[in-house]
Amino acid sequence: MAIITEEPEPEPQQQPRKPKTKAKRPSSPPTHGGNSNNSNSNNNPFSFWFYFTLSVSLLTLVFVFTSSLSPRDPKAWFLTLPASLRHHYSNGRTIKVQTHPNETPIQVFTFQEGSTTSENIVIVHGQGLSSYSYRQLAKSLAAKGVHVTAVDLPGHGFSDKSVEVSLEGVDGILGRFQYVYSEIQEKGVFWAFDQMVETGQIPYEEIQARMSKRKVREPVDLGPQEMGKVLGEVIDSMGLAPVHLVLHDSALGLCADFVSQRAELVRSVTLIDAASYGAFPLWVLEVPVVREVVLGVSFVYAKVVGLCCSKRVGVADSDALRLLLKERDGRRAVVNVGKRVNSSFDLAEWSEGLKAMPMQVLWSAGWSHEWSQEGDRVANALPQASFVTHSGGRWAQEDAAVEIADKISQFVLSLPKSVRKVEEESIPEHIQKVLDEAKNSGHDHHHHHSHGHGHDHHDEL
């Protein structure tokens, strides 16, 4: 019997499947740099904010720079000062002083306290200071029964810190740049643009005329001779002579010649920590960056004062002094005057010509060992002066005003009372001539009248 078996059919071999591929669209040739990167950068918000911040920063810097070049209104500057400084100015007065015949007079600020019928004390401040620093000392002295006048030397405090000078022509590129800068300071950045808007043309002829002969303001640069003249005119115009002169700090180097040459105006001299150099270092006002930091940051300026001048100056008083130095050419004027201080004069030789002048020296006892040695040298050079120590620093008027006032008033009031010099006002020449003619004609009329009367009487007899 046949067995029929079914054999399994062989499975068909599976051919490997090919991956399906989509038909690609013909693409345009890639551009240089790639489109994908550009799209990413255009959609990046950080790039926008970076350029936006950079643009705003540049505009801000340009605005600040142009604002600093524009002239600052004196009234606006005054209103930014602390109330104590404004109050001090309102209680003072200004006097016009002529230092040179052909120059504009200088406005000198003075501050007074006390009765005008008592002894006159005139205080001359030291380097980097002003009459504002001596207001407490002046009040304490006035309470002792004396009259006090504190003076702001030119270049300091509220006195003029710049003078008008005439310049002819402009030399070279640097001179032209300085001229443009001075014009911007005087008239502002947009002066020429305003002229173009008003007149429709560039003010070229006016600029050329101003360049050929122009007047600019320069920081005060006065030496001992000029400062002595200023002090003499202040004393004369205010009718203070004779005065008890108080010289503090570097004021000795500025006013020593005045005391020698105008001794008839001086009743006595008191030196308060006076030397041929000032306590406040000039170099911090000269070195770039350093001067900006010192005058720009109140804390830094106070530290300099504490290290070099006085350890007990109040924050408000220190900041007021900084503001007076910072604005309106104050820094440059103080540096100019400080460099002109007579630091080479011989103190002993100076005192030889003033043996009859009553003198007193007030000196800090605890500032430093070196400063005490300087005090001994001054005492030896001025044997006729009484030497008295005090507990303050080199700026004693700031931290020991009452103590200093006691010592000054005791010295001044111990001297014989001053005799005021009253000068008769001079009569103008043309008026004096009329008076002389009237006097002569009256005399002649009286002579003839008497002669005629005698003749008649003789006839009657």
Automatic annotation (TrEMBL):
Keyword Transport attached: no
Bias kind Acidic residues: ranges: 1-10
Entry superkingdom: Eukaryota
Keyword DNA repair listed: no
UniProt-listed InterPro entries: AB_hydrolase_1, AB_hydrolase_fold
PANTHER family in the cross-refs: ALPHA_BETA-HYDROLASES SUPERFAMILY PROTEIN, HYDROLASE
Domain (AB hydrolase-1) ranges: 121-277
Ranges of compositional bias, category Basic residues: 444-455
Pfam families linked to this entry: Abhydrolase_1 (PF00561)
Residue ranges crossing the lipid bilayer per the database entry: 48-69
Coiled coil start-end: none
Region (Disordered), start-end ranges: 1-39, 439-461
Protein name (Swiss-Prot/TrEMBL): AB hydrolase-1 domain-containing protein
Species per Swiss-Prot/TrEMBL record: Vigna angularis var. angularis
Keywords assigned: Membrane, Transmembrane, Transmembrane helix
